[in-house]
Amino acid sequence: MKFLAILSSMPFESDMIRASLKEVRAKNIALKKIYKGKLSGCDILLINTGIGKVNAAHSATCVIEHFPVKGIVNLGIGGAYSGSGLKVGDIAMASKEIYGDEGVAGLKCWNGLDELGIPLVRLGRKKYFNEFSSDNSFLIKPVQHIIHNPPYVTKSGLFVTVSATSGTTVRARELEKRFHAICENMEGAAIAHVCKIYQIPFIEIRGISNIAGVRDKRKWNLKLASENCQKAVISLLTYLKIPNIL
Questions:
Q1: CA distance 104 to 128
Q2: DSSP 8-state secondary structure symbol assigned to residue 83
Q3: CA-CA distance, 36 to 44, in Å (whole number)?
Q4: Fewest Cβ atoms closer than 10 Å to its Cβ: which of 154, 179, 203, 243?
């Protein structure tokens, strides 16, 4: 038996999925609570990582080291960049995750870790600096199913993982322009990083809770974003019931 691991940073981002799990058992590993269960015929591991890169990387490592994992799905909320065309409640899927902070910050410009010449991961001759591509190949058909059959807009593109979310529209536009990204978050690249080390497939799906840089929380909707994201993931899992999909 191999599990599909689902990771979200906070409980509200995965409470619908947890409530839908059958035959649930909980296990504590390294101060993390991991829920084992079944959903739509799939063997699932569910864990709330906590916010930020370190918590996310720690949780992903715990899951991979203690269970046979065939893939990781990272879900949650995210802030869309204004030029993405995404609105609050829409769904974004990462084609690539990028560390937006790691590198060299000069007076006039920023450069990634390739400026230092020290990769975060080296696999054979391949070096990984700031960027980690999602591996949608292991779920290509269900991913396409989500993209083409949702009740809301779904868009795939580059995600940026930051330690500090954009507090101004100027900062958000700077990151959007630098990375040609559609969405920012605080965990995705760290999970993608760990998955690359272990060579485990990774995808990331996020509900848009706000437009990055707009700090007026009256315009945010965390509930709608998290619910739509979970509905998309449940739709993916339901599709997996078809024989030979995964």
A1: 16
A2: G
A3: 6
A4: 243
pLDDT given at position 192: 98
Q: What is the pLDDT of residue 108?
A: 80
Reported confidence tier of residue 246, pLDDT bands at 50, 70, 90: very low
Residue 39 CB coordination number (10 Å): 22
DSSP 31: T
Tokens of 96: 């690539």
Indicate whether 197 pLDDT > 50. Answer: yes
Q: Is residue 6 a contact partner of residue 204, using CB atoms and an 8 Å limit?
A: no
Helices (H), 88-168: 140-148
Q: Are 44 and 63 in contact (CB under 8 A)?
A: no
Confidence of residue 141 (pLDDT cuts 50, 70, 90): low
Query: In degrees, to the nearest 5, what angle opens at C-alpha 233 toward C-alphas 194 and 79?
Result: 70
What sign results for the dihedral spanned by CA atoms 52, 54, 57, 59?
Answer: negative
Q: Is the pTM of this model over 0.85?
A: yes
pLDDT bin (cut points 50, 70, 90) of residue 2 is very high
Which residue type occupies 130?
N
The superfamily in CATH containing domain 3-239 is Nucleoside phosphorylase domain (3.40.50.1580)
* Residue 124 backbone dihedrals phi, psi, to 5 degrees: 65, -125
Q: Please write the tens of the pLDDT for every residue from 91-109.
A: 999 999 999 999 998 878 8
What are the φ and ψ backbone dihedral angles of 91, each rounded to 5 degrees?
Answer: -115, 135
> Alpha helix (H) ranges present in the chain?
15-20, 53-66, 140-148, 169-179, 188-198, 222-239
